[in-house]
Amino acid sequence: MSDQDRSRDSNDHPSGLDGPQETAARVQRRVAAVNATASRAVDESINLTDAQYPASSLSNTHSELRKLMGQTQQALSQTERAIAATDSEYGEPTPRQITDDHAGRLRETYDGPVRNLALMLLEFNRRKWLYESPETRGAQEVERHGLTANQREWLNDLRDAWRAYDVE
């Protein structure tokens, strides 16, 4: 990716100020970049079974797949922001909207480092449950509460321990 592409992509955040066509064009460019990276990963892996020493090809494939994962997460995030910016009446809430709704409540519920941990878990849960495993019990709990039952229990125990420590 060139510096010009990076500069253009760094401004690809639908803010609601752009029209729907500009927002859609930004999302389209982001998805095209994901597709190009996926194509490079496939190209790198084509001759893996024929290579006498596949370590270099495996390393290159791995590198492209890591880039692909990051670009896919960026594309998902940008698409969700675009949906929110262009259509507030969109049928069902996106994973980003779900976690954004829970973030405020978690900020009020937890203090200090426990708050930071809760917000990190919330972001992890968006990726793990709402993107990767949306039809599971864990995803249902994250949609409802932002955290799984085990996470809520552990965070509540940590919160109580933090409050006891903070008072001393």
Primary descriptors:
168 residues, mainly alpha, 0% strand, extended
List the helices and strands and how they pair.
Blueprint: H1 3-10, H2 20-45, H3 55-86, H4 95-109, H5 112-131, H6 137-145, H7 149-167
Helix pairs in contact: 2-3, 4-5, 5-6, 5-7
Walk me through this protein's architecture.
It is a single chain. This protein is mainly α and 168 residues long. The chain has 7 helices and no strands. The chain has helices at residues 3-10, 20-45, 55-86, 95-109, 112-131, 137-145, 149-167. α2 (20-45) packs antiparallel against α3 (55-86) and α5 (112-131) crosses α6. The longest helix has 32 residues, at 55-86. The model is unreliable at 1-16 (pLDDT under 50).
Summarize the structure.
By secondary structure, the chain is mainly alpha-helical. The protein contains seven helices and no strands. Helix content is 77%, strand content 0%.
Helix content: over 70%
- What is the number of strand segments? 0
Determine the N-to-C terminus distance. Answer: 53 Å
Round the Cα radius of gyration to an integer and report it. 20 Å
Main β sheet profile: none
Strand content: under 5%
**What is the molecular shape?**
extended
Structural class: mainly alpha
Count of alpha and pi helical runs: 7
Succession of helices and strands: HHHHHHH
Name the assembly state: single chain
Question: Which regions contain 5 or more consecutive residues with pLDDT less than 50?
Answer: 1-16
Question: Average pLDDT, to the nearest integer?
Answer: 82
